[in-house]
Structures are given as structure tokens and as C-alpha cells.
Amino acid sequence: MNLYATNIRMATSGSERIVSMDYVKAVSIFLVLLSHTSVPFRLSVWINEFHVPLFFFASGFLFSFRGNPHTAAYIRKRARQLLLPFICIGIVSYVFWLFAGRHYGSDAQSAVAWYDPLLSSLYGNTDGMVHNLPLWFFPSLFMVSAVCHVLLRSARRRMLPPVFLLAGYAVYRFAPDMPFLVGQSLVMAAFYSFGYICREKFGNESGAIGGNRRAHLSYWWALLFVPLTLAGVFINDKVAVYHNYYGCYPWFVVFALSGIITSILLCRWLGSTFGQNVLVRSVSDNTLAICGFHLMTYSVLKGIACYGLGIDMAVFAGTLFPNLLLASASICMCLPLAVFIRRHAPWMIGV
Questions:
Q1: Which residues partner with 17 through β-bridges?
Q2: In whole angstroms, what is the distance from residue 37 CA to residue 105 CA?
Q3: How far lies 148's CA from each of 56, 155, 195, 214, 260, in Å?
Q4: 3-state class (DSSP) for residue 209
Q5: Residues 291-341: pLDDT tens digits?
Q6: Distance of alpha carbon 138 from alpha carbon 59, whole angstroms
Q7: Given CA atoms 252, 258, 259, 260 in this order, what sign does their dihedral have?
Q8: pLDDT tens digits for range 118-139
Q9: Mind listing the pLDDT tens digit for each residue in 215-256?
Q10: What DSSP string describes 35-94?
Q11: Which of 76, 164, 220, 228 counts the highest number of beta carbons within 10 A?
């Protein structure tokens, strides 16, 4: 089954850009935003099955040793790209929470000490990162990237996904509250390494994907994986990767993989049908900034809706359309902000 054979590619700065992967990243971040709204419960369960594994899969797929041959240099690079934004965006969001966010909405009813988010960020305790919970993704991806840079050189690298899954299960089963995101990172390393192995099998180091006259047959796999992904809504508990909770672990793995494959098939079709899209590419290039800032834009947007337009916040509870609008409006706010930061403070988002 060649999942990537008909990807549309485009030359950018001397390298091949895989357009369908732009769609994958854009879909991934939009699902992340939706998962942080009050969409209907079953939809939330479905999104949480695979949206975080899909993000790590895409990161592994897009990784290349050709541009990153040395581990020490690569770790420094990823520290700049991930840990520096984790600190900078964390400080901004903490100040926002301290002076505004904790006085409104659900946070106004909680008794969180002013220093709890800071300690939780240092310790990797996601329960206490009330100022900006999605930031857990940054240090986790850093650790996964660093470890995989070493291990993916092994001749037996195709054994890494099951090894990571087993190690992640051991932590989940016997020590789920380990600090510094160890459990989450072990599980997500399985999908990161799986993404790299898929690229290695179906493409090459530059990202160019070989042709296949029968590639269209892979779409028939959607008849299997789409129903399987939807079945997870009724079979497994709601997954919370940030909390290192996966419900029934084997079912989580099955539904995460089926969701990844379904998303790849969808994005291949989008790429081949619509080609390169400026908005999709912009979202793809700014996923980390969107991830870091979207909760703050939610607060601003809900404040405008409530205090400026007189809209009852109950309209967002368990509904689809209002939350789709909220997530879309958040992206529309985050993109200009990301462009501004790229121009005036690129170090803040790791550029």
C-alpha cells in the first residue's frame, strides 16, 4: 500500500516540498484547536484518538538526516526551535493568565496559586499548566526528536515503533505520573519513528516520492480505516495524551494508526485535487505558533463575544458550528501574530 505515491511536490529553495504534508499539518493543528473547544463529546473523543499521534507522525516523516547529520548540532537546533519558544510563549501566556485569564471563566473558580504554573512547567506536570496546557507538546517533541536522532541511525530502526510502544505501555501501566513527560514522549516516539520509517520506505531523503501506476488503489483502504477510526468513538475511553492516559492501550494504538492512515489518504486527495494553497501552507509553516497562542486568542474571542456582543457562553457548550467558528477565528488571529513575530522577534517562535 503506497500511501504517498501520488503526492504533489514543489521545489522550494532547492528542496522538494511535499504539498500533501502541508495539508496533514494544517489538518492536524485545526484538530488540535477543535479538541480544545467544547465540541460535542463524541466528536471530541474521535479527535483525541489520533490528532496528537498524527502530529508526531508528520514530524518524523518530515525529518531528514541529510540536513541534520550531527546529533549535537541537531539538538542545539531543536532546542532553539522548541525549548526557546516553550519558555518565551510560556512567559507571555503566564503573564496573560496571571493578570487576566485566571479572573474569568472556569479559572476564576479554581484556587491555583500564582506559582503553580511555573513549577508545573519545570516539572512537566501537565495538570498544573493551567496557563497554557498545549505547551507540553514543545518539550515532548524536543525529547522525541533528540532520542530518535540517535536511534534512527540503527540498522534495526524498524523495531523502534514497537519497542517505544512497549516502553510507553510499561510507564502507562506502572508509573503513569512520571515527571518530565517521559511517558507521553515514549508513546509519541513510536509514531515519530513510524513516520520516519514510512518516508524511508515510500520516499527518499529529499522527500521526493516515487510514482506508482496503481497508487490510486490505496484509496480503497479508506473503506477499512475510516469505519475503524469511527469505531473508536464507541469502543475506547477519551484519550488524553497530555495526561498520559490512553484508555485501553491496544485499542488506542489501533485507532491512532487508523486515524493517521485515514488523514494521510484525505490529505493526499486534497493535495492532488487542490494543489498548493497559500492559506494551507501558511498554517503548515506556523503550526507551533498556532499551538502556543491559540488558547489566548480563545480568551480574547470569547471576551469579545460575551462582553462586546452579549453572546451567552452557553452557546459553545457541546455544539459544533460555534466551535468551528471559534477555531477558525483563532487561526485567523494567530497567523498575523506569527508573521509579526517572525519579522520582529523570530527567536520567540524558534525561527
A1: 10
A2: 13
A3: 12, 13, 11, 32, 20
A4: strand
A5: 999 999 999 999 999 989 999 989 999 999 999 999 999 999 999 999 999
A6: 12
A7: positive
A8: 999 999 899 899 999 999 999 9
A9: 444 666 677 788 888 999 999 999 999 999 999 999 999 999
A10: HTTT--HHHHHHHHHHHHHHHHHHHHHH--STT---HHHHHHHHIIIIIHHHHHHHHHHH
A11: 164
In angstroms, rounded to a whole number, what is the distance separating the alpha carbons of residues 129 and 117? 5
Cell readout for 109 is 473558580
Q: Give which of 249, 253, 265 is closest to 191, Cα–Cα.
A: 253
Number of neighbouring beta carbons within 10 Å of residue 129: 24
d(CA 86, CA 80): 10
Q: Whole-angstrom Cα distance, residue 32 to residue 300?
A: 18
Sequence-distant (6+) residues with CB within 8 A of 258 are 50, 225, 228, 229, 232
Place of cell 504554573: 117
Question: What is the Cα–Cα distance from 47 to 101, expressed in whole angstroms?
Answer: 26
pLDDT digits (tens, 9 = 90+) for 154-172: 889 999 999 999 999 999 9
Q: Are 33 and 331 in contact (CB under 8 A)?
A: yes
pLDDT digits (tens, 9 = 90+) for 39-79: 999 999 999 999 999 999 999 999 999 989 999 999 999 99
Grid cell locating 44: 471530541
Residue type, 325: L
Q: Is 260:53 a contact under the CB 8 Å cutoff?
A: yes
Arithmetic mean of pLDDT, 246-273: 93
Using alpha carbons, list the distances in angstroms from residue 257 to 31, 122, 161. 16, 31, 12
